[in-house]
């Protein structure tokens, strides 16, 4: 039996609101804002059929030493591995007025996505979800 850290689950940012506090997730998001005072990086990934996309409010204090300034620039795409957390009191969303769900996460790893084909990424993650759903249904 392994006692190391559990693996992360890859998902779309829009699926984060369905996850549980404590789940370790990997997701891609586009920087909407960054608050240096709170250490919160606000990420979005708007799918074509969404009018109010989910926002991920990611606490990056644990990874500040390894972050570069371009990773907090509006419009940059970043990968995050982190844990879903409780919504903190007086949560700072970077001043964004937004109608979609908000999810809070603690980043343990963050890196730039570089040039990414967003549509291909979305299709790949959705295909992986469908494959895992079939595998999970067969293993029950």
From TrEMBL:
GO terms of molecular function: single-stranded telomeric DNA binding
Biological process annotations from GO: telomere capping
Pfam families tied to this protein: Ten1 (PF12658)
Designated name of the protein: CST complex subunit Ten1
Entry superkingdom: Eukaryota
GO CC terms in record: CST complex
């Amino acid at each position: 039996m392994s006692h190391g850290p559990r693996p992360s689950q890859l998902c779309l940012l829009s699926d984060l609101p369905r996850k549980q506090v404590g789940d370790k997730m990997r997701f891609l998001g586009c920087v909407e804002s960054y608050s240096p005072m709170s250490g919160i990086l606000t990420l979005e990934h708007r799918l074509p059929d969404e009018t109010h996309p989910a926002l991920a409010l990611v606490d990056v204090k644990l990874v500040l030493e390894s972050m570069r300034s371009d990773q907090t620039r509006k419009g940059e795409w970043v990968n995050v591995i982190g844990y879903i957390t409780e919504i903190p009191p007086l949560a700072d969303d970077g001043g964004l007025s937004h109608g979609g769900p908000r999810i809070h996460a603690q980043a343990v790893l963050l890196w730039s996505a570089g040039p990414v084909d967003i549509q291909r990424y979305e299709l790949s993650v959705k295909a992986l979800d469908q494959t895992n759903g079939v595998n999970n249904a067969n293993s029950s």
